[in-house]
Amino acid sequence: MSYDVAALEKLIEQFQKMPSIGRKTAQRMAFHVLDLTDDEAKEFADAIIDAHTKIHRCSVCHNLTENELCPVCESVNRDKSLVCVVEDPRDVLAMERTREYSGVYHVLHGVISPMNGIGPEQLT
């Protein structure tokens, strides 16, 4: 079902583009946004724009950061001889939550998939 309100439909469609977000969840999210105060809506929009413009890949490990180097690569306390290769920045978060790993990371931002034409040269 689509709505006659074009701006609402556009908002639903944008939320629906996110991974694992179906139409019903996108509708709930859109209606939640509409219930925000003007200040809350501006704060929400600003957070999206800030994240999109300020966050980029670390020049060493390709993890996400707002600086040239991520906090892991910047740290003098990390064992640089120990490198954990991970698929995604979410894997770095999971490893860091354990507080057990003291090495550094290399984030591939994907997986090798010959069936899909993705080889090592397409990854970081």
Description:
The protein is extended and about 60 Å long. The protein contains five helices and four strands, in the order H-H-H-E-E-H-E-H-E. 44% of the residues lie in helices and 14% in strands. Helix 5 links the parallel strand 3 and strand 4. Helix 1 packs across helix 2. The chain has two domains: 6-54, Helicase, Ruva Protein, domain 3 (Orthogonal Bundle), CATH 1.10.8; 56-122, Dna Topoisomerase Vi A Subunit, Chain: A, domain 2 (3-Layer(aba) Sandwich). The strands form two sheets. It has a two-stranded antiparallel ribbon with strand order 1-2. Strands 3-4 form a two-stranded parallel sheet. With 124 residues, the protein is an alpha+beta fold. It has helices spanning 6-16, 23-35, 38-54, 71-74, 89-98, and strands at residues 56-57, 64-65, 79-86, 103-107. The protein starts with 5 loop residues before the first helix and ends in a 17-residue tail after the last strand.
